[in-house]
């Protein structure tokens, strides 16, 4: 028999010492309890999952359970977890880590995630999985704590890098692993040199990428699984996407699991989307027209008219800030047209959108999230709501993690309204709220989806209400029409558009919109450009559906 | 582990350690800890250091454990106990620490005619863990007769059928062991080795195969490089850690038992 056998010596020595000293001895009851505890802690089978028994409070979905089982039983603990957004990759990773910890196969684990998600991972592992994960803050943490969460940027720097290489990690988990697609980067090299007994790479977008990227990712996990670089280039060099080569797809699927929303019978809570059209007051209308008139100016090329128009739809404060910058740049002489706009700004005394917001918040009488694109509008809204006795919490992407958590908590416990600017979208979970007001609409549908995703995600048990604001007869109304009627954004399954846009490389949809709405010289041109965009999306969708059928058939 | 088993375990644990129940019903327990148990479980070394330094009157804490959650327990400031709960695992560890070593004598069930000889046995409960990239455990209870050298399995079950007491009963005397404890442990280890050798080790063969497969891939990946980079060796070492089959034997608990001889 060619197996190492190790006998535990500690008990023996202690026992002999006690025989020598004639005690102390345990009672029969304690002796029985010790044995009973050992029985409960032992795992009698190689197969199967123990973790769910330890996590009775956690709702584990069938596809998540299946992922954990396959990783442990069929993939030997090395896998790329590539579920689509929103299916709970974190839960799957936590489940696998927990399973290995229960079985005593993992004692030390390193979890590398984007800086903005560190504390969220720590919290989830502790609260959901009872895994005593610790955020790396001081360098001694690497050595003294068993389960450490850190950002990869911290970890790869000295002195951390060398300390980490010394640690006997049993498991490495890397979130957002698609950032490791380039094998020439420092991050890639850092991960390559980590000792990976068990390893999970989490990514939502592994397969749309270029074919070398999937090669790099797989080679990080299991070098040689796709051959070496040369062989790979020779065999698959001409392949454009992984899906098109059956053999390659089969190979990749041995180390990667990807669940699609459509394949899982999850019942999402309902999403009610309501457009809210707002009428400008006469003063506001005059201001808007004054801004529009700027496009005939000689200096019109030097600024983004579309930005000004959108700001004019948001708040006079937002517009004023940009105008002030423009005037400062002009030097001494302020063009007459700008003076005119400033005059119109001063003439505006009310904000129709804000009034509507107030009215809506009062009628909802529950927690509400407001998204705006502009800091100035954010501040104004906070002040405005305060005037009417409504407490709110401002939130920005630039906040440090601790402040983000604090603001999130403040909203949960004390305030009725949460006002976030665009960048605030990532890494916060606001499932406890189910009303969202899109005070201004982003022009990139993906960002709209991210906003909604803050509240409409796995775990949201109630229906979600989304109010999309747009001012009549402005650029906003165009966008609203486009998103609603043409792309039918809100009727789609979560994440569907994500796939479509990725397939067509349409991520920069925003630019197409801008081009159509601003640079068109006539209504006719604008219409044609818009229709072209829509046609592109429809085409992508068509291709996506065919691809989906193939996927289902294999 | 079912909820009622958890409940039973917790009650027995605290009773065995001299704690009293302030309140005990089907849904929860409020336990008055002893000073010793407070130190064992509550993790407040500074408090105890302070009390001992100043000679203050110690006030051990009360612990509220909820074993069946409902509306009544929602209002309670207590910890919910379930199989994965850290508190329960702390109790498991504590029980194993406190129940490791034992010495007991059998009490005759019927009045004795004259004196009775108690035979020395060494009893050991061990966990045998079979480990590669997967793992399973087996718990074995062994008893060694320290005179004849006979080894029997399921020893603990046999002990359960007898009345055992920590003090030597009246009219009983113990026979001195011919086999000393140290060599007794050696014999049991030897027995375990033999038992393992006779096992089916398909699991280890399969692990070796998985290991060899991955190693072949790794070699292929770096076959063109004249001098292998460091990450090749790191990965190779990681594969060994991942797959190499190993068996560990750890002792749960054990001790000396002086038992009346039985014909059966």
CATH architecture of the domain at 58-263 in chain A: 3-Layer(aba) Sandwich
The shape of chain B is: flat
Shape of chain A: elongated
Order of helices and strands of chain B: HEEHHEHEHEEEEHEEHHHE
Number of strands of chain B: 11
Structure annotation, total helices of chain B: 9
Distance N to C terminus of chain B:
34 Å
The residue fraction in helices of chain A comes out at 40-55%
Low-confidence sequence ranges of chain B: none
Strand content of chain A: 5-15%
Pfam family, one (chain B): YqhG
InterPro entries (chain B): YqhG (IPR024562)
Protein name (chain B): YqhG family protein
Protein name (chain A): DEAD/DEAH box helicase
Description:
The complex is a heterodimer of chains A (554) and B (264). Chain A has 554 residues and is of the alpha/beta class. Among the domains of chain A are: 206 residues, Tandem AAA-ATPase domain (Rossmann fold, 3-Layer(aba) Sandwich); 67 residues, no CATH class; 60 residues. Chain A is built from 25 helices and 14 strands. Chain A has a seven-stranded parallel beta sheet with strand order 4-5-3-6-7-2-8, sandwiched between helices. The longest helix of chain A is centred in the C-terminal third of the chain and has 31 residues. In chain B, helix 8 runs antiparallel to helix 9. In chain B, 40% of the residues lie in helices and 27% in strands. Chain B is flat. With 264 residues, chain B is α/β, with parallel strands linked by helices. In chain B, a hairpin with a 3-residue loop joins strand 6 and strand 7. Chain B is built from nine helices and eleven strands. The longest helix of chain B has 20 residues. In chain B, strands 5, 6, 7, 8, 9, 10 and 11 form a seven-stranded mixed beta sheet that branches. Chain B has three domains: 96 residues, no CATH class; 114 residues, no CATH class; 40 residues. Chains A and B meet through strand 1, helix 1 and helix 2 of A and helix 1, helix 5, strand 5, strand 6 and strand 7 of B.
């Amino acid at each position: 028999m060619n197996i190492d056998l190790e006998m535990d010596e500690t008990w023996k020595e202690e026992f002999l010492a006690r025989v020598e000293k004639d005690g102390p001895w345990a009672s029969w009851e304690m002796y029985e309890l010790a044995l009973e505890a050992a029985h409960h802690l032992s795992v009698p089978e190689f197969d199967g999952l123990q973790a769910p028994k330890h996590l009775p409070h956690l709702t584990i979905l069938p596809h998540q359970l299946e992922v954990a089982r396959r990783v442990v039983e069929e993939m030997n603990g090395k896998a790329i977890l590539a579920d689509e957004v929103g299916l709970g990759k974190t839960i799957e990773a936590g489940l696998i880590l927990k399973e290995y910890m229960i079985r005593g196969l993992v004692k030390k684990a390193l979890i590398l995630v984007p800086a903005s998600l560190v504390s969220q991972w720590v919290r989830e592992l502790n609260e959901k999985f009872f895994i005593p994960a610790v955020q790396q803050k001081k360098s001694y943490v690497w050595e003294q704590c068993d389960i450490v969460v850190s950002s990869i940027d911290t970890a790869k720097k000295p002195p951390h890098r060398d300390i980490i290489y010394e640690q006997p990690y049993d498991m490495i988990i890397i979130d957002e692993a698609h950032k490791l697609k380039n094998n020439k980067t420092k991050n890639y090299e850092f991960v390559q040199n980590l000792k990976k007994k068990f390893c999970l790479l989490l990514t939502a977008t592994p397969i749309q990428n270029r074919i070398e990227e999937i090669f790099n990712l797989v080679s990080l996990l299991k070098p040689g699984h796709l051959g070496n670089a040369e062989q790979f280039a020779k065999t698959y060099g001409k392949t454009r996407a992984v899906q098109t080569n059956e053999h390659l797809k089969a190979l990749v699927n041995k180390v990667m699991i990807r669940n699609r929303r459509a394949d899982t019978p999850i019942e999402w809570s309902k999403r009610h989307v309501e457009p809210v059209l707002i009428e400008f007051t006469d003063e506001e209308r005059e201001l808007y027209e004054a801004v529009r008139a700027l496009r005939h100016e000689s200096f019109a090329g030097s600024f983004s008219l579309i930005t000004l128009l959108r700001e004019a739809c948001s708040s006079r404060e937002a517009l004023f800030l940009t105008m002030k910058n423009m005037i400062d740049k002009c030097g001494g002489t302020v063009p007459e047209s700008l003076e005119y706009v400033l005059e119109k700004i001063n003439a505006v005394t009310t904000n129709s959108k804000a009034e509507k917001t107030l009215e809506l918040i009062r009628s909802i009488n529950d927690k509400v999230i407001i998204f705006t694109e502009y800091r100035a509008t954010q501040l104004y809204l906070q002040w405005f709501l305060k005037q009417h006795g409504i407490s709110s919490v401002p939130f920005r992407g630039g906040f440090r993690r601790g402040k983000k958590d604090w603001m999130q908590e403040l909203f949960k416990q004390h305030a009725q309204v949460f006002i976030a600017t665009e960048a605030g979208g990532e890494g916060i979970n606001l499932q406890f709220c189910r009303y969202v007001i899109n005070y201004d609409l982003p022009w990139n549908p993906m960002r709209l989806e991210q906003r909604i995703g803050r509240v409409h995600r796995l775990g949201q048990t109630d229906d979600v209400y989304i109010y999309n604001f747009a001012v009549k007869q402005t650029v906003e109304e165009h966008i609203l029409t486009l998103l609603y009627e043409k792309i039918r954004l809100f009727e789609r399954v979560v994440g569907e558009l994500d796939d479509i846009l990725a397939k067509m490389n349409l991520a920069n949809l925003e630019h197409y919109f801008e081009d159509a709405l601003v640079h068109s010289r006539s209504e006719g041109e604008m219409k044609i450009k818009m229709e072209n965009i829509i046609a592109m999306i429809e085409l992508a969708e068509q291709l996506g559906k065919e691809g989906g059928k193939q996927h289902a058939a294999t | 582990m079912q909820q009622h088993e958890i409940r039973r375990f917790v009650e027995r644990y605290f009773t065995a350690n001299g704690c009293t129940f302030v309140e005990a019903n089907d849904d929860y327990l409020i336990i008055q800890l002893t000073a010793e148990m407070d130190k064992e479980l509550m993790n407040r070394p500074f408090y105890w250091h302070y009390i001992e330094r100043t000679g203050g009157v110690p006030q051990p804490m009360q612990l509220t454990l909820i074993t069946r959650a409902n509306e009544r327990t929602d209002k309670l400031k207590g910890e919910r106990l379930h199989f994965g709960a850290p508190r329960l695992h702390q109790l498991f560890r504590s029980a194993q620490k406190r129940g490791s070593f034992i010495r007991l004598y059998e009490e005759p069930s019927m009045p004795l005619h004259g004196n009775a000889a108690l035979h020395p046995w060494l009893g050991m409960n061990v966990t045998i863990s079979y480990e590669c990239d997967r793992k399973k455990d087996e718990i074995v209870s062994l008893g060694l007769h320290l005179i004849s050298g006979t080894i029997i399995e399921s020893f603990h079950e046999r002990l359960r059928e007898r009345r055992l007491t920590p003090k030597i009963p009246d009219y009983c005397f113990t026979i001195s062991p011919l086999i000393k404890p140290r060599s007794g442990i050696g014999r049991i280890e030897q027995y375990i080795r033999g038992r393992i050798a006779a096992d089916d080790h398909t699991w280890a063969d399969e692990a070796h195969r998985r290991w060899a497969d991955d190693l072949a891939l790794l070699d292929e990946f770096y076959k063109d490089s004249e001098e292998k980079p460091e990450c090749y060796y790191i990965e190779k070492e990681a594969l060994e850690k991942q797959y190499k089959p190993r068996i560990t034997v750890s002792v749960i608990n054990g001790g000396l038992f002086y038992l009346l001889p039985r014909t059966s």
